[in-house]
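Record 1 of the preview.
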Amino acid sequence: MNRRQLGDSDLQVSEISLGSWLTYSGGVGREQTEACTRAAFDAEINFFDTANVYGTGAAEEAWGEILCRYERSSYILATKVYFPMSESDSGLSAEQIAKQIDASLRRLRTDYVDLYQCHRFDTETPIEETMEALSAVVESGKARYIGFSEWTPEQILAGQEVAGATKLVSSQPQYNAIWRAPEAEVFEVCTTNGISQIVWSPLAQGVLTGKYEPGAPPPHDSRAANDEMGFAIERYMSDEVLEAVQRLNPIAEKAGITMTQLALAWILRRDEVASAIVGASRPEQVHANAEASGIDLDDDTVAAIDEALAEVTITEPRLGGFAKEGVKHR
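->
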């Protein structure tokens, strides 16, 4: 497993990381969660990404129970803050950040996280307040570094420009061979400011594995067929997208790799990307994902992928429908 530096930090993260959004928040049972986590360590994955809102604390609690058995220095742990944890608890105010980091640490059974991320941008809280609160978390030793997910270039620069604030080192956008919107502006702004990408949905919720066929029902054991996990895949499930993805199969065969490896290697060819966060419900999926590390795609293969998906790729700058534009100042 290759590792890459995470922005202007001293963290060396595995190129493939394990996420817990739809899986360990309730979509996958406790035994499977532990088996997948153990498989990650076996595959030399050292980066684990979660959030307080996943299962309203359930994902953090699950990993708190499991990861406490491992040497803390052997893995890099990231969590997030922003989305509602109750009717009165949400956002990125100083009060919320101070409250939610403590709650996350209790659930994770650790004294610190390596990376604390703003899950989205809070347009209702002055950016100065948010950055100062995050800086206080780092200064207290409860987090080593800070980052964000799905911020616009304007929001990224606003955060970086807060005087005296701790530097942002990571960006977590949705990014895959279909959803390419971050390439337009976010990648450049982040590179200029020493910020790496740790991307989510690198397999387009599993669609890029080729398991879903146009006009056919999803496999019974797939994410799309699961009531707990299926909602997030809907944007990729049109026949037009599925037909385009099927055109990738001969490209993968010619390269001598699987569709999964093809999709992940396509992402990891970008120097801006430090890690691809992939969920898994079975240990064998973890190992299959990890095998993408170190695969180099030649120019002809990349061009073939681009041609196959040309009609369905999304390249316009947008935020996946999750975040609001704008920045509030004091």
